[in-house]
Specification:
The chain has a 4-stranded mixed sheet, with helices on one face. The model has no long low-confidence stretch (mean pLDDT 92). It is of the alpha+beta class and 217 residues long. The longest helix has 30 residues. The protein is built from 8 helices and 4 strands. The chain is globular.
């Protein structure tokens, strides 16, 4: 059965790989599964056909036969369970990898998204100057904890897993802020994720949508 995912017709990040379809593309590339992409406009995302797939009118969605999924965590977890390459065989290691997926989405990503909101959408508010450093410090608190746990290891728990895929995807949002550079081992961790051939293929595929040029590599 053909796997079909949805992505922005015109990504607001300018092809930087921050839209969540990149996470799903990356997972599919890691497990060598072909897929098709259906591009949707912002208008189409709010229409009944798309809302039937994603009740909150967002991207990505995942379709495979009569299965339809939304939420990147659920989609990547499904891919990792169905195909070899993103979850360890050992039951305990597998459980830890899944735990890191949840940690990325529920513990590390929320303050990072709050920082993006504070900078992009609230920067003109009279209270923004006082609030922004507080939000940035909450991000640093999480990064300090994560950096301590990672230490000098390449990945969070042994070999690369879906937990690393999700964590790297979350941390990529910080590259432009400069905060990530304050934690050299985390910056190196993200760079290792970006260097994976599967990530490069996923990134180039989503960039090609924005530029209109065929993907490279």
């Amino acid at each position: 059965m053909t796997i079909i995912i949805t992505a922005f017709e015109r990504s607001p990040d300018g092809g930087k790989g921050l839209a969540r379809d990149t996470r799903v593309r990356w997972a599919l590339e890691e497990v060598s599964q072909p897929y098709e992409v259906r591009l949707v406009s912002f208008r189409a995302m709010k229409e009944p056909a798309h809302l039937a797939l994603h009740p909150f009118g967002q991207i990505p969605t995942y379709e495979e036969g009569d299965l339809a999924l939304f939420e990147t965590g659920a989609i990547v977890f499904h891919i990792a369970e169905r195909h070899v390459g993103l979850l360890p065989d050992d039951a305990n290691a597998r459980a830890r990898a899944i735990t890191w997926m949840f940690a990325a989405l529920n513990t590390v990503e929320p303050p990072i998204l709050e920082l993006a909101t504070a900078r992009l959408l609230e920067g003109d508010k009279p209270w923004s100057k006082e609030r922004l450093p507080l939000v940035a410090d909450r991000v640093r608190d999480r990064l300090k904890q994560l950096a301590a746990r990672l230490g000098s290891a390449d990945w969070l728990d042994g070999a690369f897993s879906a937990g690393d895929l999700m964590m790297v995807s979350v941390l990529l949002r910080l590259k432009a802020s400069g905060i990530l550079d304050e934690y050299p081992n985390l910056a190196g961790y993200v760079a290792r994720g970006e260097a994976r051939p599967a990530y490069k293929r996923a990134f180039n595929a989503q960039l090609a949508v924005y530029t209109g040029q065929p993907p490279t590599g």
